[in-house]
Specification:
With 306 residues, the chain is mainly alpha-helical. It folds into two domains: 72 residues, 2-Layer Sandwich (Herpes Virus-1), CATH 3.30.40; 213 residues, Rhomboid-like (Rhomboid-like fold, Up-down Bundle). 53% of the residues lie in helices and 7% in strands. A hairpin with a 5-residue loop joins strand 5 and strand 6. It is elongated. The N terminus is likely disordered. Keywords: Hydrolase, Membrane, Protease, Transmembrane, Transmembrane helix. One of its GO terms (biological process) is proteolysis. Belongs to the peptidase S54 family.
Length: 306
Amino acid sequence: MDHVASSAPGARSVPVCYRHPDRETGVRCTRCERPICPECMVSASVGFQCPECVHGGGPAHQHTPGGGGAGRTMAAARPRTVAGGPITADPRLLTKVLIGINIALFLVQLAVGESFTQRFEVIGQAYTPLIPGVQGIAQGQYYRLLTAMFLHAGFTHLLFNMLSLWWIGGPLEAALGRARYLALYAVSGLAGSALTYLLAAPNAPSLGASGAIFGLFGATGVLMRRLNYDMRPLFALLVINLIITFTPGFNIAWQAHVGGLVAGVVTGYAMVHAPRRNRALIQYGTCALVLVAVAVLTLVRTGQLT
């Protein structure tokens, strides 16, 4: 019997993953028909299978005719995630590494002081108090588009971003696989930095992982839609975040959030909807197109400022 979740007597039952009873899902293993969540899904020739069916619940080998009536054994294909990435022992490893990098660099910010932050945050063109001369991306410091993704303005800023990264990034990493997840994170963060550079005042600094995290939000929405999940909780959380983003007084770089969200939706769509034929080419090709857009925005703004 399926595990189901019901909020009230008579309410429509919603299946939950048989391995993670706290996660609702609309997807079932094509072999045993048990409901499975994205972390448990293994891409199969048709639909998805659960880890138990892949590793031992079904035929693990295929026999082909051989001489003398004997058969030759062919190993089954390596199990894959929804997006075609390899299944790993720790599906949240990369998320943990990213959180660790953010925390480590925040400690460096505290130890070194404001001069470190001013050297690596997004800023178009300005005189900074602790660094002599004009600084900014317009001066050729393009590395700021990347480094700003790992800096934070304070403990509260870091805490909320890292909690969001853990809650949203962990399941998404399990569903996409490490390489695709890292590509999504990188292009989303860079898109957020590029849009900030293009639209914000040239002397307005910006920093934080929220551009990349909004990209994860967007990709999660695409994945949930693909798997027929109830998207209302995600929409509610996204609306709350967008309200905070555009509320005066919070001093939030809305450009980074919007840029990351758009890049995340576009890249996430390619990740989960790419056909099996040439799947990796389509997925990483989309990432490359987003990076081209980032380069174009950056060059346009640099031309304006110089």
